[in-house]
What we know:
Bound molecules: S-adenosyl-L-homocysteine, iron/sulfur cluster
Number of strands: 12
Strand content: 15-25%
Amino acid sequence: MKPFRADQLSRHYFGRLVSDPGQMTDLPAPARMGLGGALLPRLLTPQRELTCDRGMTRKTLWRLSGGAYAESVLMRYPGRVTVCVSSQAGCGMGCPFCATGQAGLTRNLSAAEIVEQVMAGARALAAGALPGGPGRISNVVFMGMGEPLANYKSVSSAVRRLTEPPPAGLGISQRSVTVSTVGLVPAIGKLAAEGLAVRLAVSLHAPDDEARDRLVPVNRRWKVAEVLEAAWGYAEATGRRVSVEYALIRDVNDQAWRAALLAGLLAGRPAHVNLIPLNPTPGSAWTASSPGAQREFVRRLEARRVPVTIRDTRGRQIDGACGQLAARGLRAESSAGSAARACGPVSGR
Ligand code: SAH
Ligand code: SF4
């Protein structure tokens, strides 16, 4: 077919948020069904949908082709909407505090499967699915299931599709995209050389190799010092501050001395610390830090002028942390357990 048909199709998908070929009435009927059906197959089927925070957080468990599962979350804040996407079905990195890590890796997602999570969110938002009226996606974070840098090719090509203007992409600003990594050092270097201005988040979780070896098993390959060196290299290449993610786990990594050690590593560096109160996974002995320990941790960082914020805990009641809904959703479609939760399935409202 004529090349301009591809342009038309792309404008529908990215520009007008139309994914149903039947609605692309400027395409001749045979092209609509043939091209639309072939180039825009259904990649994601919603399996469960949950809302929380008075409807402002909406989480979807998707069934992918081949029977794998992945999750995405839409979060509306005053003045912005963030979608959190998965880059893999499961994850092979095995962090013991993370529900996704416990299930292991099923498979990588394709670039299209990643992009479609954002597009599905964009369509829902444009249709007014979240309170506050129709809206647009302003931010994308790769903080759902999976390790984005272990699926480098699909993730970098998804970032390009999401950030190029229509018809080539959705037109989100590169600066509004965050890629979160467990610390795959060579891939951080590669990303720094891509010429993308995306924000890098590094999941550090401990300032010392002893604790990090336990919390983030890949640390046995790339140590704290190497991960931070790669992060500073990224900041230098992109001119962007790196976000250091730190899940506070009671008596495991939340001691004041560890806060001081972390402050020493980050003082004067282009970093911002994001403290995440641990969202305990079922069956784990680990729990979130006490408010006192959290306050002291913040104080130690601020004493060295290290910028620090505490991540808000959106979607806690709907198993908001990475992989928790998939783990539960696979066990029971509509178990009594989930019915008793503070926030219910969308369809039940
Ligand atoms: N694999 C990437 C991105 C996905 S995880 C990474 O690890 O960075 C996104 C963030 O959620 C990471 O910072 C991760 O450490 C954190 N996380 C995972 N499980 C969590 C839990 N149970 N409570 C709090 N944060 C968690
Ligand atoms: Fe994978 Fe990130 Fe979970 Fe670790 S925290 S197991 S890297 S998704």
